[in-house]
Amino acid sequence: MSPEGWYRVEEIAPGTYQLTEGGRWKMFLFIGDEKALLLDGGVGFGDLRALCESLTDKPIEHVLTHTHWDHIGSAHRWESVGVHPLGADQLTNDHAVRCTEVISGWADGLPFPPEFEPEGYKIKPGKVGREVKEGDVLDLGGRTLRVWDTPGHSPCSISLLDDKEGVLISGDLVKPLQPLNLRVATAVLSDYGPSLRKLEKIANENEVKWVCSGHTDAFPDPSIIGEMAELVEGIAEGKHDPPQKMKHPSGDRFDVYRGTRFSVWINEAARK
Q1: Contacts made by residues 130-134, CB under 8 angstroms, sequence distance 24+
Q2: For the ranges 30-34, 73-77, 79-83, 122-126, which has the lowest average pLDDT?
Q3: Euclidean distance between CA atoms 222 and 112, whole angstroms
Q4: In total, how many domains does the chain have?
Q5: What pTM value is reported for the model?
Q6: Domain that holds residue 101
Q7: Looking at the domain assignment, is residue 1 inside a domain?
Q8: Residue 193 belongs to a domain with what CATH number?
Q9: For the residues 244-267, what does the mean pLDDT come to?
């Protein structure tokens, strides 16, 4: 844990750190010879930039896998942030998220960082810098990350591959050992299968050692991507067994489809 107990730091490969905020939100710091790259920003209750600067003296670029509120919380701490062009508007809007709702359900009882003030908390907007999209190569000096568009969880979702250490970052598209959440307003079932198949092909053609997502620990078995693709395609084609019907405390009704190592949660809006 970092000194304030809010962030956990783990080096999953040389010069590659998994940063966990509040026990739930994952960010990834890649350190090259010339600069470093931080992927995603969590909810931003602590000073993520200071934490990253304690791990490297290289200049740090900040890029987002997508612009859902729980990934952009630290964007305001950077002068500008890299984002897919379809997510730019979301990054620059105010996000009034009630801290009590977030913490009571997701923070696992961890103490707040000392500088954090829960009352009236909202995520601050960030400034869009570079556009990041399929075909881009982020060069850190002696280390590169390639970018692919992978919509499904959101239209602006991207995935990145660190060729040097075999680390595949999927944002929230792949969530090993947790439900794939197609209940979010931006989820589109018809986009999900093709994006998963794209990641499966990337993993098969490269030496991927770790599959990383925004909410689960780095996972050492990329074959789970193909399993997810098969289940999602079966749902889209109406070939899967009937789902379990569920109702969220918020009132949202959704279907649950179960795989061997994960499940899929989906509501009617995502099927359209």
Answers
A1: 130/80, 130/82, 131/82, 131/83, 131/84, 131/85, 131/88, 132/63, 132/82, 132/83, 132/84, 132/158, 133/84, 133/85, 133/158, 134/158
A2: 122-126
A3: 34
A4: 1
A5: 0.94
A6: 7-271
A7: no
A8: 3.60.15.10
A9: 90
